[in-house]
Amino acid sequence: MRVSVFSMILVVVVAASFAPQCQASGWEALVPAIANKLTSLWESGEFELLGHYCSFNVTPKFKRWQLYFRGRMWCPGWTTIRGQAETRSRSGVVGRTTQDFVRKAFRAGIITESEAQTWLNN
């Protein structure tokens, strides 16, 4: 089990132990809400980049007691280049990961400067 997952579970358990005791119906509503919040921190998906199918995943990570998100993307069947980024922004990590991928693809000569600028300026 990865350290970040273990740390996150530990934080939830400790927080739950300090929560005031409530009725069983309260716990029944609280547990799914917490589980939903935790599982929403991870994400995997697909998108199209310059006419090619690409995949990405986002995973949470604790670093110096702060929550960060690590993004990775790759385009199977097109190139072996992988984009990577780490940021505190959950909503911005996929964009930063895509920018890293585009920079690497441009340096490798896989895409043109105009194609790269389209992605880097947005």
How is this structure best summarized?
The chain has 122 residues and is an alpha+beta fold. It is built from 4 helices and 4 strands; from the N terminus they run ααββββαα. The mean pLDDT is 83.
Question: Can you put this structure into words, describing what you see?
Answer:
It is elongated, with a radius of gyration of 19 Å. It has a four-stranded antiparallel sheet. It starts with a helix and ends with a helix. It is built from four helices and four strands. The relative contact order is 0.11. The protein has a single domain, classed as 2-Layer Sandwich (Double Stranded RNA Binding Domain). Strand 2 and strand 3 form a beta hairpin. The protein has 122 residues and is of the alpha+beta class. Helices cover 45% and strands 28% of the residues. This is Anti-lipopolysaccharide factor 6. Keywords: Antibiotic, Antimicrobial, Signal.
Return the CATH architecture: 2-Layer Sandwich
Largest sheet: 4 strands, antiparallel
Care to count the β-strands? 4
CATH topology: Double Stranded RNA Binding Domain
- Can you list the strand order of the major beta sheet? 1-2-3-4
Indicate the structural class.
alpha+beta
Q: Spell out the helices and strands N to C.
A: HHEEEEHH
Spatial separation of the terminal alpha carbons? 37 Å
Per DSSP, what share of the residues sits in E-state strands of 2 or more residues? 25-35%
Mean pLDDT: 83
Instruction: Please work out how many helical segments DSSP would assign.
Output: 4
What is the number of domains?
A: 1
Low-pLDDT segments, ≥5 res: none
Q: Which CATH first-tier class would you pick?
A: Alpha Beta
Protein name: Anti-lipopolysaccharide factor 6
Keywords: Antibiotic, Antimicrobial, Signal
InterPro entries: Anti-LPS_factor/Scygonadin (IPR024509), Anti-LPS_factor/Scygonadin_sf (IPR038539)
Signal peptide: 1-24
